[in-house]
């Protein structure tokens, strides 16, 4: 079995999604991140200087377990260090002493609150990954120290045969969802994206779906008007599937991804039939995929799909 398959197996074994009282889903504490410990940091693999994470065995992931030998390298991608608008200042640089972000709160328009509760700040003044060690310090490719918020639309319909009859497997209806192929690593994923400063999650969900699955960035004003009409219909009512930490390969000890994933199910399939799907922005492909236990998707997206299948009482 390839190391990646092994990782995914163990991720699925230890990662449970539980309903909690608020009607939301959260990963249980026993869930340990796997992709966030990938041996070589994304987008450095084929460079002169691949960034290798310090190896963290499963039992040493939690901060509360002593690991005296732990000595991870520090890495912040040059594109982040240049400090574009979406990135924070380098809090490790003493010149920025007066610019310390307001951790665990709404810092101007930037949401530095974690969906998972309060996170700690270490002795160097950096947020500590609430899911434990990753083998790398700094921000890597992530702009924000601490939580970096994303949002994911899960647009589903029932799979139908040529006669329009819903397809069944093992006595349950088969559902399908819109997936995009990511430009950065070719993996299939939900058409989600980063929440812009000051943006509400439902806006991000609609915007990202438009940009990645309908290529709105290249659409004419007339086409945009039509797309808006159709998205208003589909996105009027959604169900939250997940809100919290994501086991993302870009995570570090001091910066990590969080998301809110929402399901928009088109029972009759006539709303989604109006869309002309076309990959755009950070996506290079778009297609309907069956909800199925053998799916392999980016980050923890497969867990969201499993939960969606449960909620729709669809085959998995
Ligand atoms: C993606 C989201 C994903 C998040 C966390 C973002 O870059 O667009 O789909 O949930 O990262 O992995």
CATH level-3 fold name: Nucleoside Triphosphate Pyrophosphohydrolase
Helix-and-strand structural type: alpha+beta
* N-to-C CA distance: 23 Å
Strand content: 15-25%
Protein name: Nudix hydrolase domain-containing protein
GO molecular function, one term: ADP-ribose diphosphatase activity
Domain Nudix hydrolase: 158-311
InterPro entries: NUDIX_hydrolase-like_dom_sf, NUDIX_hydrolase_dom, NUDT9
Task: Describe the structure in brief.
The chain has 316 residues and is of the alpha+beta class. It has helices spanning 3-14, 78-81, 201-213, 221-234, 301-312; strands spanning 17-19, 25-27, 74-76, 106-107, 110-111, 137-140, 146-158, 168-169, 172-173, 175-182, 188-189, 193-194, 239-245, 255-266, 283-290.
What does this structure look like?
The protein has 316 residues and is an alpha+beta fold. The chain has one domain (3-312): Nucleoside Triphosphate Pyrophosphohydrolase (Alpha-Beta Complex). The chain has helices spanning 3-14, 78-81, 201-213, 221-234, 301-312; strands at residues 17-19, 25-27, 74-76, 106-107, 110-111, 137-140, 146-158, 168-169, 172-173, 175-182, 188-189, 193-194, 239-245, 255-266, 283-290. The strands form five sheets. Strands 7, 10, 11, 12, 13, 14 and 15 form a seven-stranded mixed β-sheet that branches. It has a two-stranded antiparallel ribbon with strand order 1-2. It is globular. Residues 1-30 have low confidence and may be disordered. Beta-D-glucopyranose binds at residues 150, 152, 189-190, 192-193, 246, 248, 257, 259, 299.
